[in-house]
Structures are given as C-alpha cells and as structure tokens.
C-alpha cells in the first residue's frame, strides 16, 4: 500500500539533497518520479529543486490555490509514475495535504514530502501541522546547532546578522538568512523580544 511520508527538519539540514537522492534511486531502477516544489521558492529559479551541495533537478511547481489531487491525477493519466516528491512542503495548505492523502489512498501512489517543521517564531507551518497530523510515516532529518546539540529551531537574521523576532512567516526576496539552533540557544537568541512561542503576539 502507498503511504504519505513527511521528512521534516530545520533549515540547512540537507532535505533537498535527500529528496533528490531518493528520487534518483527510483529513476536508476527505471521508475519515473514526479517532482513538485513551491512556486515562490526563488532560491533556485522557477521549477527546480536544488541543494546546497550542488545537485539539482527540474520540478513542477505548486501554488496555494492549486488542486493537487486533480493535478496529480492528470499526470498519472499520461505517464507511469512510481512516486511523488514534494519539496518545501511547509508551504502546502491544509487542503492540499488532504488532497495528498487522497492521492495516496485512492490513486495508490506514494507521496514523499520534505519540509520545515517550525518557522523562526517557533510556530508550526500550516502544511507541516497537517502533515504531522496525517502522514503515515514521519522522519526527522537531523542537523546540529553550533553547540553540537540537535537543532530543532531556526532564527531569522538580517544582512548585518541581527536576529529578527517578528515579521511574516514567509519572507520573499529579502536579504534575511536563517540559522538553525537547539531550543536553548534559540531561546537565548530570541531573548528580549515578546515570547512569541507562548502566543503572546496574538
Ligand atoms: Zn545549541
């Protein structure tokens, strides 16, 4: 039986490289894969999944209003696809994650999602919350903080290295960068700001 998988991590853990390697394993065995990534991820140019270690592959893109069940059903009608890979899965809507469960259950094709668990405020992304609730299998892609402990949190920095403690969940086209930290060092980095993780901002 096909399953819905969620491979989650913080920033810079090598998710995209893992996705590309897993897709490559299928193709090496003469099985076709269908790759999707968010259309507002302009790190690597439109329609491409790229990893920091220099490997990349062409990908289709999804926007938040797309019906992914209808889209994937059309793709499957045209060609034999053995697995569907989705990068930047944190940007899926809850509705789209539900559509992916239908792809798995009704079209019987495995869907492998890769994405961030929490944003820089320590809040779940909507797509990740739905995947954590509904995926058949979940796996944490691990990376480490500067102290050597497992990193589970992320901070956003401006171009001067100053930690940003508020702003939109998704920042497009800015000069911000992200650093992955353990929870203790994330708390220290966020100190002096409102305790966003406790919901005091809303
Ligand atoms: Zn640390």
UniProtKB/TrEMBL annotation:
Localization of this protein: Cytoplasm
GO cellular component: cytosol
GO molecular function: ATP binding; thymidine kinase activity; zinc ion binding
Residues the entry annotates as binding Zn(2+): 145, 147, 182, 185
Pfam families for this protein: TK
Subunit comment: Homotetramer.
NCBIfam families in the record: PRK04296.1-5
Name of the protein in its database record: Thymidine kinase
């Amino acid at each position: 039986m096909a399953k819905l998988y969620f491979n989650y991590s913080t920033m810079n853990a090598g998710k995209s490289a893992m996705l590309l390697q897993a897709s490559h394993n299928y193709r090496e065995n003469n099985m076709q894969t269908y790759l999707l990534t968010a259309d507002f991820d302009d790190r690597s140019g439109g329609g491409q999944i790229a990893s920091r270690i220099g490997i990349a592959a062409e990908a289709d893109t999804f926007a938040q209003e797309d019906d992914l069940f209808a889209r994937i059903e059309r793709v499957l009608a045209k060609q034999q696809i053995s697995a569907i890979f989705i990068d930047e899965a944190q940007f899926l809507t809850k509705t789209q994650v539900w559509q992916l469960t239908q792809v798995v259950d009704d079209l019987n094709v495995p869907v492998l999602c890769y994405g961030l668990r929490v944003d820089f405020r320590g809040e779940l992304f909507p797509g990740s919350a739905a995947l954590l609730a509904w995926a058949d299998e979940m796996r944490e892609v691990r990376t480490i903080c500067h102290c050597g402990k497992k990193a589970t949190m992320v901070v956003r920095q401006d171009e001067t290295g100053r930690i940003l403690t508020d702003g939109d969940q998704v920042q497009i086209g800015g000069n911000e960068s992200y650093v992955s930290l353990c929870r203790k060092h994330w708390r220290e980095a966020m100190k002096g700001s409102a305790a966003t993780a406790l919901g005091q901002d809303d």
